[in-house]
Amino acid sequence: MATFLSNPPAPDAKFGSGLPWGNDQKGCEPLNPPQTAEALAMIIITRPDATEDQIEHIVSRIHDWGLRAEVSRGEMRVVIGVIGPEDKIREKPLGAFPGVESVTPVLKPYKLVSYEFRGTPSKVKIGNVVVGGKEVVLMAGPCSVENEDQIITIAQSIRKAGAKILRGGAFKPRTSPYSFQGLGKAGLQLLAEARREAGLPIITEVMDTKDLDLVSEYADCLQIGARNMQNFSLLREVGRTRLPVMLKRGMAASIKDLLMSAEYILSEGNFNVLLCERGIRTFETMTRNTLDLNAVPVLKAETHLPVVVDPTHGIGIRRFVPAMALAAVAAGADSIMIEVHNAPELAKSDGEQCLLPNEFADLVGRIRGVAEAIGREV
Ligand code: PEP
Ligand code: MN
Fold it and tell me: Number of helices (H) and strands (E), helices first, in the chain?
């Protein structure tokens, strides 16, 4: 039986039309459909010692590929502009030709996720909650769903404190195969019960394409974890659903890598995507990860997709989580995800970094203060 709160994929939409505007989330319709006109896509700068034969060879190969070449001769070097469809040009090994010093793409490799594609920020609806508007949406809950009492107690306490979305993992990506792996389907059923009790939509992780149908029956928003950010078959599969997807940045992924992974999901027609900064690995050993708050303004400028920050995994130490949550709001995050547990010393995963319910409630008040100071609300 379907257990959606208010965001079930329409039966015919689940594996949808494939058109970006084929989803039913009005906030995410592209305003500026992609331009297909040919444009200057690549600039080749030749070496100062490049010979005329080498330049002719490059130009004739560009013509063989059905592309146009615009040659400008300077005092020291020849610059060749390659004109044509960007996708076709990007895959050509232009840097491999003798006489070439550098090849610079003019256009960005991501299209559907780029800010220019819509020209305005997107809003993504999770259940009845809109992420990407004026409100800074708080998501909270335990790392793992462990039992009925735990998830319902936490769900009720975070709702009272002001959280709008309940998080909890039923399928857990763990570094060790001997660690708790999550309750699987039973965990999803407990989440559904907590959703009924607390009236909050739920976000939960899907780790594998084989579990997607099952997780989609329960989730209001699918989470793709850091370790799966470049699991391209999973990205494509969630792209064929119309469920909101929160894509977490891989721990060794650049901002551009994150955008390219999101592009996979949008390219399958699902525009209901949120990007999540959750910390990257650096040389620093005093924190679990390094929360890259640089990513927030950069993502807000580069993409129309809403940006979530997860300060819990980003710093990994309970007493420092509030400071990074406040900083994330100040940096412009649309949503903050925080791990909360009623008995951290009994937690089956990430006990050391989750806030107690009263600590979370206290933090919400402070987040509200920062949000209001920058013209937003909680
Ligand atoms: C989580 O949210 O509990 C989690 C496992 O996150 P990440 O994929 O960012 O490590
Ligand atoms: Mn966790």
Answer: 12, 14
